[in-house]
Design goal:
Blueprint (H helix, E strand, L loop, with lengths): L3 H7 L4 E2 L5 E2 L5 H10 L5 E5 L3 H9 L2 E6 L3 H12 L7 E5 L2 H4 L8 E6 L7 H10 L2 E10 L4 H11 L4 E7 L2 E6 L12 H5 L13 H14 L1
Parallel strand pairs: 3-4, 3-6, 4-5, 6-7
Antiparallel strand pairs: 1-2, 7-9, 8-9
Length: 223
């Protein structure tokens, strides 16, 4: 029986370089183990991107959706699962850019979301926007490649939002729990947005006490 340890050891080359050469890009061992520890036969999960993480989700037995733009991944991932006797009856491979597929996605109620697709601006933020609202309260969110600017900004933004709690952090990946149901927010209630904006004295009265307190160091540094 194929196991997560086999996946970590083998690191199969499921991806391709631009010139067609095989590549073994994939989520870290920490991410793969987190997926196996927190997803199971009763879970509903989704990721942007596909590869080693898709194999881990399949091994977990979760009802899983993978959204990816590279057409060949449907074959390389699917063939690897078949060749190793890993069930794929609960796996849904959705080929196309996440920014095109996610807005029209009918599924919701996700227990675990993994953002590891296109890292170019603004795609990770769009992935979070469309998938966060489809998560269950208490669900888990993994942001991969936080060493890249886009992932780092998304991570930092969520660390300042009370609806999200950072539960684990390592180089290249951050893990959050969704503490409250999704709700749209006026920008003035988003702490990260406010403290990275420019204001004149007196403007702080526009904001909640919590954000006004966070703004104090900003105003002090301007004096």
């Amino acid at each position: 029986m194929f196991t997560l340890d086999d996946l970590i050891t083998q690191r199969p080359p499921l991806h391709r370089h631009g010139d067609g050469r095989k590549a073994s890009w994939g989520a870290s061992e920490t991410v793969l183990k987190f997926i196996m520890d927190h997803a199971g036969p009763h879970s509903k999960t989704i990721e942007t991107g596909a590869g080693h993480s898709t194999i881990a989700f399949a091994l977990s037995g979760a009802e899983h959706y993978a959204v990816f733009p590279e057409p060949y991944l449907a074959d390389t991932v699917g063939d690897f699962l078949d060749d190793n006797g890993i069930a794929r009856d609960k796996l849904h491979l959705l080929n196309g850019p996440s920014q095109d597929i996610l807005p029209a996605l009918k599924e919701d109620g996700f227990d675990l979301v993994f953002i590891d697709g296109d890292h170019a601006f603004p795609v990770p933020f769009m992935d979070w926007y469309y998938l966060g609202r489809r998560m269950k309260p208490g669900g888990l969110l993994i942001i991969d490649d936080t060493q890249i600017w886009t992932g780092h900004v998304l991570k930092t933004f969520l660390m300042m939002e009370p609806e999200w709690r950072l539960i684990k952090d390592c180089y290249g990946a951050s893990f959050f729990r969704m503490e409250e149901p999704w709700s749209g927010k006026w920008w003035g209630k988003q702490a990260y947005t406010v403290i990275h904006s420019s204001f004149k004295p007196g403007d702080e009265n526009l904001f909640t006490p919590h954000i006004r307190e966070m703004l104090l160091p900003v105003y002090e540094s301007d004096k």
